[in-house]
Design a protein that fits this description.
Length: about 130
């Protein structure tokens, strides 16, 4: 697994990085996002959605309470937030492994929260909050 440590100077820069990355994503790609609250994980996903040609009118938001949002685009973008999960059985209940092996790109916030959520391949991006601006 490739690990990338990233510091961004603005939400716009984070979205632009996500857009460039999303333009290169394909079916079966997995991206894990880690970083404290407010570090820019959702901004990065918003950019990924643009790069995957999700309709710009669609609001891409953090799926904290629903766990999973799927956005149609060039290929499906499956955006998961595992913050509220703690057991591998919960991954099975939401069909996690089928999504990871499916026809879309999976971007997973807080993947390190649950044993078995990191598939051993893909890209793990850690976003660091430098300051409030």
């Amino acid at each position: 697994m490739t690990k990338l440590s990233l510091t961004s100077s603005s939400p716009a820069e984070t979205r632009a990085l996500g857009e460039r990355l999303g333009a290169r994503c394909g079916p079966g790609d997995w991206i894990g996002l880690s970083g404290e609250l407010g570090a820019g994980k959702t901004c990065l996903v918003q950019g990924l959605a643009r790069g995957l040609e999700v309709d710009p009118q669609v609001a891409v938001t953090r799926p904290t309470f629903v766990i999973l949002q799927t956005y149609p685009g060039r290929i499906p973008l499956h955006h998961l937030d595992l913050y509220r999960l703690s057991r591998p059985a919960e991954l099975d209940a939401i069909g996690y492994h089928q999504l990871v092996e499916g026809d879309g790109t999976c971007v997973v916030e807080w993947a390190e929260q649950v044993d078995g959520a990191v598939p051993g391949r893909g890209l793990l991006i850690r976003l660091l909050l430098v300051d409030e601006t």
